[in-house]
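Internal QA ticket QA-208
Title: Verify multi-chain structure generation after dependency bump
Assignee: T.L.

Test input:
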Amino acid sequence: MHTYQHEVKYYECDRMGITHHSNYVRFMEEARVDLLDHLGYGFDRVEAEGVVSPVISIQCNYKHPTTFKDVIDIDVWISKLSDLKFDFSYEMRVGGKIVCTATSTHCFTENNRPVVIAKRLPKLYQAISQE
Amino acid sequence: MHTYQHEVKYYECDRMGITHHSNYVRFMEEARVDLLDHLGYGFDRVEAEGVVSPVISIQCNYKHPTTFKDVIDIDVWISKLSDLKFDFSYEMRVGGKIVCTATSTHCFTENNRPVVIAKRLPKLYQAISQE
Amino acid sequence: MHTYQHEVKYYECDRMGITHHSNYVRFMEEARVDLLDHLGYGFDRVEAEGVVSPVISIQCNYKHPTTFKDVIDIDVWISKLSDLKFDFSYEMRVGGKIVCTATSTHCFTENNRPVVIAKRLPKLYQAISQE
Amino acid sequence: MHTYQHEVKYYECDRMGITHHSNYVRFMEEARVDLLDHLGYGFDRVEAEGVVSPVISIQCNYKHPTTFKDVIDIDVWISKLSDLKFDFSYEMRVGGKIVCTATSTHCFTENNRPVVIAKRLPKLYQAISQE
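Actual output:
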């Protein structure tokens, strides 16, 4: 498990004075990018191999609003791994209180076709499995 | 059911050349705002009554990428309605091909407390029920 | 001169309840993309020729705030043209009242080097000159 | 003078693979929010006094593109101060190379009318003058 922090920006808040719900999807991306970097397997390295990693689905449960200057602690971990797909799960907290839980599902593709992760990206697969 | 159109903007596309997945969450908001307007019950009218409508959860399934200048047809309808919560469902298509399906769950709150929709907003409740 | 319309979205408004000032820079892009399309010379056509068009500078003067559901009429025209650079000017109005005036300066580059527009993109140069 | 850092996010990059130019306007806001915090006079404190601070104008000069994971050092300082208005100037660098210079002009308003800064917000005026 890995923890990433995002401090809410002024421009991320909406007319209700709270963080616009679409931005949590961006915080999730920031957190998993940071986790993959931490595993030594950043987006840039993967992209340099000609492989891209589209998002297949996301789910967000908003528990409590956050606002400008809140520091969100985002726990992120790989919660599922199969031949072609993998899931990240996220728990976001402000001062210990859970504000959002989320999951995202991803695959890897090369020339628009899904790749078997363990074969095409064995080192990443190993790193992910041990997480 | 109601159909709303969003044409993908240059600034909505990412390094992969495709619409960034977080933007679909914004298209969903555009579509339900348009549906509520169509029902004669826009966000502004609801907010003017001192009621706000937070998002409780969202789920998006990305089927096919879209890109700059694609015109996305978004069907949006109310797919569930209970005392305190209601769901919108979305089907997004480009040229007839489904690119994304999604659901969002919402409630209404007044002074930070959930309201019983049928009691507090009876006209909206009626309009929604008949949808 | 060409007029483009942008209706302000909920997610484009900030904690002050008004359109966040950074979004006008995006509306400017929407308007000039639309003008170039209108001239038969869209971004996609230019990019397909291996040429990209970076923004060199922007200037925005915010006259009056706008908010959710405001329809902004954006007049856009090419206000300057030289060998290597060109300017777009913008006047944005809501219901006839000027809300923002702006200018942006651009060039075209190929393999990271500026190109002489009249030589490399003669048809676009002609179309722009006649504007 | 004050220095603030912004690391470019994946979702801030566009189809050209570079940071979309509109995002620099957001980085500018982050940097001046941080400077005002540093002066002990954050947005939240000013807003709590019933005063808001609209942006009057911005100007950005893009010198070099930046991209995903670039760490931008943003020097921000108050470059002009009059009775009703004040300017921030910005110099953004990546690894010492200037990527963008910018200026923004602001005022303070109360009930939609401009306030004389030295009278209405004397402590902030003092803090700003000494910068």
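Spot checks passed. Chain C touches chain A at residues 10-11, 13-15, 17, 20, 22, 68 (CB under 8 Å).
Status: verified.
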